[in-house]
Amino acid sequence: MRLLMTILAALASTLTATTLEKLTFDEMVAKSTQIVRGRIALSTVRQHGAIYYSHYKVQVSEQYKGAAAKSIDVVLPGGTIGRSQQTFSGVPTFPADTDLVLFLWTSKTGLTHIIGLSQGVFQVSKNAAGQTIFSRGAIQEGLIDARTGRPTSDTGMRFTSQEFSSRVRSQGAQQ
User: Fold this and answer.
1) In this predicted model, what pLDDT tens digit does every residue of 62-106 receive, in sequence order?
2) Which long-range contacts does 160-164 make (Cβ < 8 Å, 24+ apart)?
């Protein structure tokens, strides 16, 4: 019975709900220390304090904001070490070799995170006319309006690469 209680307590500690502040595109640009396009090249999981973090090596192909870099180590909360797993709602997953645009910020500890978790991740694709498109679907996790503190919804975002670059530049972020 004691073993069962220990296992249940461990499982309960890994089940967490996340409430995210809904961010506009302009807010994500302003809050980001870097905005990059790149491919996910490598993933490892390391423990930082009580939290597991998945570390993704991003091979940068385009830099929209921040210091130029060929690669960036980006962390997301959660992951598996041995038989122990931690998961958090709102955290995106990245298959290897995925082409993405990421809105990033670096913490005081030096770890680079994604702004707004799933909000700061855009998939890269081509439309029927051959234009490069940056998009993200609607966020399904709990979002709140920062002004009212009330739950709100999200409809996703979609830009051509030209529209995206122009919007970032209009925020004075192009470096």
Assistant:
1) 999 999 999 999 999 999 999 999 999 889 888 778 899 999 999
2) 160/127, 160/131, 160/132, 160/133, 160/134, 161/131, 161/132, 161/133, 161/134, 162/131, 164/64, 164/101, 164/122, 164/134
Quick one: average pLDDT of 14-41?
85
Over the stretch 122-166, which tens digit does the pLDDT of each residue have? Answer: 999 999 999 999 999 998 778 888 889 899 988 999 999 999 999
Domain count of the chain? 1
In a domain, 120, yes or no: yes
**5 lies in some domain:** no
Whole-prediction pTM = 0.84
**Between 15 and 121, residue with greater pLDDT:** 121
Is residue 34 domain-resident?
yes
Residue spans of alpha helices (H) in the chain: 2-14, 25-31, 161-170
CB neighbours of 142 closer than 8 A, spacing ≥ 6?
17, 18, 19, 20, 89, 151
Domain holding 115, by residue range, is 18-170
Residue 164 lies in a domain: yes
Q: What's 67's DSSP letter? A: S
Residue 78 CA to chain centroid, in angstroms? 12
Amino acid at 129: A
Q: How many CA atoms lie within 13 A of 139 on its CB side?
A: 27
Q: Which residue has the tokens 């490892």?
A: 44
